[in-house]
Amino acid sequence: MHYTEEMMIMKMFKSEEGFTGLEAAIVLIAFVVVAAVFSYVVLGAGFFTTQKAQETVYSSVDMASSSLEVLGDVYGWGNTAGTAIDGVQFVVGLTAGGSSVDFAQTTMVFTNTSQIVDLDKDVQITSSSSDVVNVTARDSLDADTWYIIDIQNDDTDKGALLENQEQFTIFAKLGTAVVTPNEAFTIEVKPPVGASYGINRKGPARVNDVNILY
């Protein structure tokens, strides 16, 4: 009887050892699975964070840089008295790799040595307009207003969206403030997205009908 009890006890010990080993294996497998899932989640979160960081950087670069540039010379049109510049004409295009600019949502500000004037946009320039080019004679244009008077490199689209390779000729008719001889001035072009673009020039020493401004 004593021998039988001893054998039973030994058998129980062996069973408990076997069960404990099985439990350990299950726990180990579960740990490996959980660790793998956790690593996948952390790795995925890392990729997501990196992507968002890149998007933020690209967005910041877009906001900090301007897509616009002036092409060629800036011209000043003299008033009838020949005493000041009352019209400024320039051509704008997109920089290399620059995003399209909606001029229906663009604003301009004129600044000389004594005044700051918000220039109105030609009423013809709207997002829905298929032709924003104003062909009215310069002398008949409204003061303190800017116009698109020509679009180059796209014969089929005369809308307000400046796209790749297109060139918009802008004419700003001054009134409240003009440019006197040797006076410095700035026309700031503010697109809806991206940094503003400042055109800094100076009036000529002698005002002619048409003047190249430097």
UniProtKB/TrEMBL annotation:
Major localization class:
other
Q: Does the keyword Methyltransferase apply?
A: no
Q: Where does the sequence pass through the membrane?
A: 21-48
Q: Can you list the GO cellular component terms from the UniProt entry?
A: archaeal-type flagellum
Q: Which InterPro entries match?
A: Flagellin/pilin_N_arc, Flagellin_arc-type
User: Which Pfam family would be a valid example here?
Assistant: Flagellin_arch-type
Q: What is known about what this protein does? A: Flagellin is the subunit protein which polymerizes to form the filaments of archaeal flagella.
State the name under which the record lists this protein.
Answer: Flagellin
